């Protein structure tokens, strides 16, 4: 039992997954993009924002803010956020090179959120999700087939 607990505490996947939960980081960036679109560059990326500014907004955990702006806790990954739709009423969060384990966890954390209006994995929208947790996790594992995946989250 102690070994299992220590394994979860020191697991790199556990740390990475915790640093991208909706209430702590990436979805706040997408929400901010819809409110303040001029802050994102033409491609919707936040890499050009200064670390000081990101820190003042308190919108991302320390692990996502590097010397050159925004980073992600997985190899060769990226986060982009920008206004979405004709009237910019929605925000699009784009995550690239997402490892399979984080893909499954992101689906679990975000699909049931009231602000999320679309969740896409490699361009395919996830709809009609199973009701039971077991069926949901099986469905997410099957949906996150590519390793890595590209995820788009559209939100209000």
Properties at a glance:
two-stranded antiparallel sheet; 35% helix; 22% strand; globular; disordered N terminus
Query: Average pLDDT value?
Result: 63
Low-confidence parts, pLDDT < 50 over ≥5 residues? Answer: 1-49, 53-61
What is the helix fraction of residues, given as a range?
Answer: 25-40%
Oligomer: single chain
The profile of the biggest β sheet is: 5 strands, antiparallel
Question: What's the CATH topology label?
Answer: TcpA-like pilin
Which H/E pattern describes the elements? HHHHEEEEHEEHE
Structural class label: alpha+beta
According to DSSP, the number of beta strands is 7
Radius of gyration: 16 Å
CATH class: Alpha Beta
CATH superfamily: TcpA-like pilin
Distance between the termini: 42 Å
| Order of the strands making up the biggest sheet | 3-4-7-5-6
Q: What fraction strand? A: 15-25%
- The CATH architecture comes to 2-Layer Sandwich
